[in-house]
Prior knowledge:
The protein is of the alpha/beta class. The protein is built from eleven helices and eight strands. The chain binds flavin-adenine dinucleotide.
Amino acid sequence: MSLLTRFARQWIAGETLDDAVARARKENRDGIGVVINFLGEHVKDEAEADKNIEENLRILRAIEEAKINAALSIKLTQLGLEINKNLCLSNVEKIAGSAAGKNVFVWIDMENSPYTQDTVDVYLDVLKKYSNVGIAIQANLRRSESDVKSIAASLGVIRLVKGAYRENEEIAYTSRSDITKNFSRLMAYLFYKSPSFAVATHDDLLINEAIEANKAHKKRLEFQMLMGVREELKRGLVKEGLTVVDYIPYGRNWFPYTTRRLRERKRNILLMLRSVFDV
Length: 279
Ligand SMILES: Cc1cc2nc3c(=O)[nH]c(=O)nc-3n(C[C@H](O)[C@H](O)[C@H](O)COP(=O)(O)OP(=O)(O)OC[C@H]3O[C@@H](n4cnc5c(N)ncnc54)[C@H](O)[C@@H]3O)c2cc1C
């Protein structure tokens, strides 16, 4: 295993579904729910998209068989969004339908801005048939206020995130403080309008804001965080009686995911360099 692979392992359960299920069991024992994600994105041919559908269906069977407290998270470019939007819609419906039969919730991750509109469109279409599906919305995008409003009006379920992709100033807030302010604004709207949503951040300020707001609003609220990030905080929130969910990725395509995690925090890059060069 290369040093980089070893470094990436803090954020990834392993290469196989068994690794993800083992990690899920461990989190469940500590009172933490999980979201399992099969890594991979930007699929260009149908046969590969079909293989990815199969793997996601396998995750759903594993969740049922292992009786774990788990949801599924998918990326639309892994399921053919770049080949054809209708093909992708029908692929997502296959997964959502199977998940509904097993009482499993499916989250749609949000990718970078060239895919935002199609992702929202596919989501709103899937939602017409299946209510067990939610979507990530990124606080860094200026358009997100209007997306949150239309999704909430359609009774969709939102996972609010800051946004993991670098975007252009014209369409996005780019400073940390502006993104946090917009997260806060969108979250306030969700507290006002939405019965159930996920606050997916490791930011103490936003987490505390959500905890305070929920004392008055009493929504079905879950705090979602990434595997390998702020493990003590997760356990602390569980002790306070809050719902905490860990996002657990697995698979061989770990490189883009790891790059996004590295970029999020300068300290991670230093730690990686230190582990590679032993400085
Ligand atoms: C469950 C979940 C699902 C997500 N889904 C999506 C999605 O679909 N689309 C999308 O664009 N983004 C997604 N993201 C990523 C998100 O957009 C952010 O890039 C990421 O969460 C970092 O932002 P933050 O809110 O934690 O705040 P930040 O301001 O980046 O971090 C706040 C604090 O958290 C800690 N921290 C944050 N990241 C790390 C890290 N990598 N390593 C160590 N400590 C860290 C640090 O203490 C930091 O000071 C998801 C995040 C989560 C938790």
